[in-house]
Fold this protein.
Amino acid sequence: MFDIQEELKKLPKEPGVYIMHDEADTIIYVGKAINLYNRVRSYFRPNIGRGPQIDKMVTLIRRFEYIVTDSELEALVLENNLIKEHSPKYNTMLKDDKTYPYIKVTVGEAYPRVLFSRSMKKDHSKYFGPYTSAAAVKDTIDLINKLYCLRTCNRNLPKDCGADRACLNYHMKLCTAPCQGNVSEEEYRERVKQALDFLNGSYQATLKELEQKMKQASENMEFEEAIKYRDLYNSVKQIASKQKITDSDGEDKDIIALASDENDAVVQVFFVRGGKLIGREHFYMKHVAQTPRSQILLDFVKQFYAGTPFVPKELMLQEEIEDVEILEKWLSNRKGARVYIRVPKIGAKEKLVELAAKNAMLVLSQDKERIRREEGRTIGAVKEIAALLGLENVNRMEAYDISNISGFANVGSMVVYEKGKPKRSDYRKFRIKTVSGPDDYACMKEVLTRRFVHGMEEQKELAEKEMEAEFGSFTKFPDLIMMDGGKGQVNIALGVLEELRIAIPVCGMVKDDNHRTRGLYFNNQEIPIERDSEGFKLITRIQDEAHRFAIEYHRSLRSKSQVKSVLDEIPGVGPARRKALMKHFKSIEEVKNADVETLAQVPEIPEHIAQGIYEYFRK
């Protein structure tokens, strides 16, 4: 038995990380401390303004453990790693885990290439970024290769020089073909230097050269060449115009600000590289209720820069945070150069932070509106349906449908919606076992009986074992059953439930003569619904989904049956050879069209069987 008060006395007065566990031994919080003795003990003192979130967490703690480190810096790194590994419920968490695109120039190679990369490695290459748009990065790389005719292949040059023919890019005048020795290493390096200048923001020399080439080609009446240079000129101008100068010092900076309300927070980051604003990105934070803004910013900085490969020279924050000195030391170690964390108070930098905060607020408000609309389509629609039927607390809805063609391969489908959203993990298919021929009512009776008998058995087993967890989708019964049809289907469902002594409301989704949803059948009457209402739209989605799920299952069974009926009728072809044929040829049509020699190429098919298959399809 873990005695918290006794264990508190044993805490060392050293830096480290502490880990809180709940009754199920789940990690619910991870923190760091300069002094573990003082920090951990503070959680178990009378309330000293920690906030309701932490107070609630403390009531759940059943044991704690700790890891001593040599320094607070080591504790910071370890804390980040543990939070990322375990995602504790009461730690403020960065929801997004994105990798950003970079432009990589392999200057360590004799003939460098310009490549797209999602990571930044110590491989003697030069990296530009991170950028927020992968499409823009690819467009820029494509433009650079066109401008400077750099190679895009992965040949090992100059070792493989002349080993193979030049590729299509050379013939299209998109590459100087260093693989053929057409360009010296020095001349190629000059082209790479120009590309690096371009990536560093020096566009004027390139624009001037393209303008001259365009004019020269036009004067020589080489109009196709002139058009090519004109298009390149316009592409470069477009890229140049997108760069906004934000600072004259040309340094790399990240500007970080946030917007928050009682439950949510959005952090906005502006990426400034070489003095130019190259993009922005926003990040959602969770578990932020009652958390101070400065704490959210601190948690974001620690978690984001623990995972990103690039650390800028300066972070400009919206407000002061704790642990600035230790964070600067940690970031400097990661970057390999001095990193500064600043909070600008006046001037252009302060205005840029304000702009980031404004963008964060815009994202937050837009997201709230999106959530409000989504809730209208889901939870709001469920409430509409419940009100129409006079029901309360409708959360889980199950819909059923039957599919067959002239009684062949009768199947049933069960789709589940919770809070107005499909819960696909609980969908189930039924292959009808007791009904032959097209009898939808009998099929539906079998499906519902199997579903609820199975559920009752699972519930009984759970009760006997005194377990609270659910075995599967059958354990949890719906608050409302929705049948694909009217009075007949509803009565079948009510009959099954009465026989099993289960009380669940049942309604039918009635369709008109054009097979479109018309209303609900409930308590022996049809209830009309406004066609423009969210409730009506949800009913239509549920009905279509149940039908789709049943049809797809039926189609898959038909397909398997067709494969078996065609191939298994051929003498000498059993399940193993049928499987080998389908794996090799992919379709029955390919098997039909194959000659004897091609069929015999399948290892499992001897020549005499191949001859038999060939003749079978040509009788």
Remarks:
- The chain has five domains: 4-91, 102-201, 253-374, 382-559, 568-616.
- Residues 120 and 309 are 6 Å apart (CA to CA).
